[in-house]
Every structure is written in structure tokens, then in C-alpha cells.
Amino acid sequence: xxxxxxxxxxxxxxxxxxxxxxxxxxxxxxxxxxxxxxxxxxxxxxxxxxxxxxxxxxxxxxxxxxxxxxxxxxxxxxxxxxxxxxxxxxxxxxxxxxxxxxxxxxxxxxxxxxxxxxxxxxxxxxxxxxxxxxxxxxxxxxxxxxxxxxxxxxxxxxxxxxxxxxxxxxxxxxxxxxxxxxxxxxxxxxxxxxxxxxxxxxxxxxxxxxxxxxxxxxxxxxxxxxxxxxxxxxxxxxxxxxxxxxxxxxxxxxxxxxxxxxxxxxxxxxxxxxxxxxxxxxxxxxxxxxxxxxxxxxxxxxxxxxxxxxx
Length: 311
Known about the structure:
- This protein is an alpha/beta fold.
- It has a single domain (3-303), classed as Alpha/Beta hydrolase fold, catalytic domain (Rossmann fold, 3-Layer(aba) Sandwich).
- It is 31% helix and 18% strand.
- The protein has eight helices and twelve strands.
- It has helices at 3-17, 105-117, 136-150, 159-163, 167-182, 201-212, 257-264, 293-303, and strands at residues 32-34, 43-44, 58-62, 65-69, 75-79, 90-94, 101-103, 121-126, 194-199, 221-224, 240-245, 269-274.
- β11 (240-245), α7 and β12 (269-274) form a beta-alpha-beta unit.
- The longest helix is centred in the middle third of the chain and has 16 residues, at 167-182.
- The termini are far apart.
């Protein structure tokens, strides 16, 4: 299968997963258009407009959270800790949404604020997306079609092939790392301790940035409910934290080759497989143990010395 076709298939699967994000939020599952919120701290990354894009950026609410779509200009929004408690570590946060939407709160700002509260500078990456119908009814119809065509047969993505179709998103990610390091002194960030955490499609982008992002070179990475197919691991691969629910309808039954790849390469890896949680649990409060992923992630950061200032 051609890389772009495979990328589309995977995007469809992850977009369909949005319908299963959190059953606890079923009463809020209707998509409602909302005005684009003010983003006074968002910094344009300079990667240019998405080639060929015609639909303007728009936002909607769903599951009690905010989503962006038709993003054509990439931005980075800082969430900085109190300088008195800043550890010097930083994390670029990549929300998910099947490369068609971005979960800007549940997998974006809510994560970033929680990290800043721990003394870690966080930066939400609003990366460029594949275009969807500009009108909400057309978008809803397109999503319904995707749900019906992919729910029964979850994609089994090949990360190496998918990276070939992520050029705009990888460019956005590289620009984000470059910006954080350029302004490291201003933001009280150690340029050698800049990592990345991503959710679903954002996890895929995090992995792609690690393997094909050239100068980005994340110091540590977190993959939250992303695909776990095996990859070729570079000798200097960063420590990796992975969280997935065993009942994830898209990525729980494709094996754990990525974990084995990291172990075989003798690179640090921590893997949490939660019994329940589905796909897209993020920062939503749920009764499943998957809600504890963030606390586990913070403990992992601490284990790697990222919650303390360097001497």
C-alpha cells in the first residue's frame, strides 16, 4: 500500500476513535461549532500555510472539550511554571485527532497545565492538519462515513510508511523544538532536556519526530495510546514512556513490537498496559485505572531526574 494511502487509513481509524473517546461524556458527544478562542500566547512557527488548503481553521466542542480542525498554520503555545519551581525540563505536547482534528484541551492545554504545575515547561503544538469539509454538517457526515468504514477493521499501521506522509507535521514539530531551544534562557528551559509527549496521532508524530525529525532529537518521549508496531531504533534513541489500554479498539491488538524494538536496542522504556480505558482517555476523569497514566508519567520523569534542577 502506498504511504499516503496507509496514512489516510490510519487517520481514519484514529478519527473514528474520537467517537469512542469517553463513554462517560456520551451526553456531550454532539459536535457544536464554537468561535475560535483567543490564543494570545500562541506563537506561529513559520512553517508556512498548508499547501493547497482552502478550508479555514474552525473549532468545535465535544465531550465537554474543545477541538480544532482545518489547521493550516502551525503554532506553539507556552505553559510555563513559576520560575521558582521550574526544573529546566520542557515537554512539547502533541494532541491527537487522526490528523483531522486536534483535542486542544483534553490532550493539549490540560496536559500542559498539569506539567507546569510540576515545574515542567510545556508547549502545546497545534500542528497542521488534513483538510475536512468547512461546514459542520459536512464534517459530521464525513466522520460518520469514517466510523462505519473503519470501526469493524482497525488499521494496522506501519510507522516507517506513515512517516513518509507526515512531512508537514514533522516540519512543525522540528520548528517547535528549534523555537523552544532558541528561547530556552527566556523560558528557563535546559535545551538538553526538551522532550515530547503525544496522544494517538500525536503519539505517531512524536515517534516520527524521534526517528525522522533530524535536528529535533527529543531528550525523552511519551506515547499515549499510539500504534506500537516495531521500528528500527537508533543507537541514541531517547527514554520512552508508553501508556495504552488493553481495550483500546485500535491499537491494543496489534502487538507490542515497539516495546520490543526499544528493549532489543537496549534503550530505556517503560510500558503501562491498563486493563480498561478505551482510546482517547487523556486527562478525562474516568473510573478506570488508565486515569493514573499522568501520575505514572510524572513519576517516570522524576526517575530520570527531570523534576529537579540540574546542579
